[in-house]
């Protein structure tokens, strides 16, 4: 995948995207250079999300909306050199950053999560702080399940309703999230339960995030 804004298969060209995806792609065009420096303040809990995948050496893992690859090192430490990590993202600018964290067993794919159709299944599928941003998030969840093996684990870490924050904090925080195209009111748990009744809430919604794990 080249640097810049195009991908060889043409799927991530801005001019053929629908408008919601193009808006997100433009947003991450200017956010990619500052993403790692700025988001650590609010994006907490990624290590726990990777641990929740219960990966073993040699496992295959798919990260949807992988961004700049902040989960790659921990995923790599779980699956080892014999495992496989596939990172998917809509933004070539974010993927260009992820490439700096790419080890030989990491594959990067520029694709819309809601039309993902890899001819492979994975022992783990991970989405951290992506489902509240992906425009067609319900379809993205369906695609994620399709890529899961029979005994695989799907783990989601994302913003939930900020129901334990003080009202003033909540309004400010939700305003900040909205500026960043984050829809914290999405009922991700409810949508996951439409696909399986094996959904565990590993960490309930706090002022920031919910961690969920499911099996088919
Ligand atoms: C807040 S970032 C999270 C990145 C990473 N998972 C992390 O924890 O740092 C959201 C990511 O979702 C990606 N994204 C948004 N819509 C997408 C879509 N339709 N398909 C694939 N990725 C998408 C964005 O490009 C961005 O990299």
Summarize the model shown.
This protein has helices at residues 19-38, 46-52, 72-79, 92-98, 137-146, 167-179, 188-193, and strands spanning 60-64, 84-89, 106-110, 122-128, 148-159, 198-203, 209-215.
List keywords for this structure.
disordered N terminus, alpha/beta, Rossmann fold, 216 residues, 7-stranded mixed sheet, binds S-adenosylmethionine, 7 strands
What does this structure look like?
There is one protein chain. α1 runs parallel beside α4. It contains seven helices and seven strands. The protein has one domain: Vaccinia Virus protein VP39 (Rossmann fold), CATH 3.40.50. With about 220 residues, it is of the alpha/beta class. The N terminus is likely disordered. Strands 3-2-1-4-5-7-6 form a seven-stranded mixed sheet. It is globular, with a radius of gyration of 16 Å. The two termini are about 30 Å apart. α4 links the parallel β2 and β3. About 35% of the residues lie in helices and about 20% in strands.
Topology:
Blueprint: H1 19-38, H2 46-52, E1 60-64, H3 72-79, E2 84-89, H4 92-98, E3 106-110, E4 122-128, H5 137-146, E5 148-159, H6 167-179, H7 188-193, E6 198-203, E7 209-215
Parallel strand pairs: 1-2, 1-4, 2-3, 4-5
Antiparallel strand pairs: 5-7, 6-7
The structure holds S-adenosylmethionine.
S-adenosylmethionine (SAM) is lined by residues 21, 24, 28, 43, 46, 65-67, 70, 88-91, 94, 112-114, 128-130, 133-135.
End-to-end C-alpha gap? 32 Å
Low-confidence stretches: 1-6
Q: CATH architecture, please? A: 3-Layer(aba) Sandwich
Give the overall average pLDDT: 89
Number of domains: 1
* Count of distinct strands: 7
Task: List bound small molecules.
Answer: S-adenosylmethionine
The CATH superfamily turns out to be: Vaccinia Virus protein VP39
Helix content: 25-40%
Largest sheet: 7 strands, mixed
Oligomer: single chain
Shape: globular
Order of helices and strands: HHEHEHEEHEHHEE
Strand order, main sheet: write it out. Answer: 3-2-1-4-5-7-6
Count helical runs.
7
Strand content: 15-25%
CATH fold naming: Rossmann fold
Backbone structural class = alpha/beta
Rg, please? 16 Å
Quickly name the level 1 CATH class. Alpha Beta
């Amino acid at each position: 995948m080249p640097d810049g804004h195009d991908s060889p298969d043409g799927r991530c060209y801005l001019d053929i995207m629908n408008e919601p995806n193009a808006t997100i792609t433009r947003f991450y065009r200017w956010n990619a250079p500052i993403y790692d420096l700025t988001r650590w303040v609010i994006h907490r809990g990624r290590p726990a999300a990777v641990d929740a995948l219960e990966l073993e050496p040699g496992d295959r893992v798919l990260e949807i909306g992988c961004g700049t690859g902040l989960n790659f090192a921990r995923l790599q430490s779980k699956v080892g050199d014999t495992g496989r990590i596939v990172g998917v993202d809509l933004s070539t600018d974010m993927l260009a950053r992820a490439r700096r964290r790419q080890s030989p067993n990491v594959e990067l794919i520029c694709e819309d999560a809601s039309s993902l159709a890899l001819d492979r299944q994975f022992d783990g599928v991970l989405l951290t702080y992506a489902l509240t941003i992906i425009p067609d998030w319900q379809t993205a969840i369906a695609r994620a399940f399709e890529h899961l093996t029979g005994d695989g684990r799907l783990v989601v870490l994302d913003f939930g309703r900020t129901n334990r924050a003080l009202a003033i904090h909540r309004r400010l925080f939700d305003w900040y999230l909205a500026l960043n195209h984050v829809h914290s009111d999405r009922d991700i748990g409810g949508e996951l339960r439409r696909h399986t009744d094996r959904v565990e809430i590993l960490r309930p919604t706090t002022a920031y995030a919910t961690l969920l794990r499911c099996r088919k």
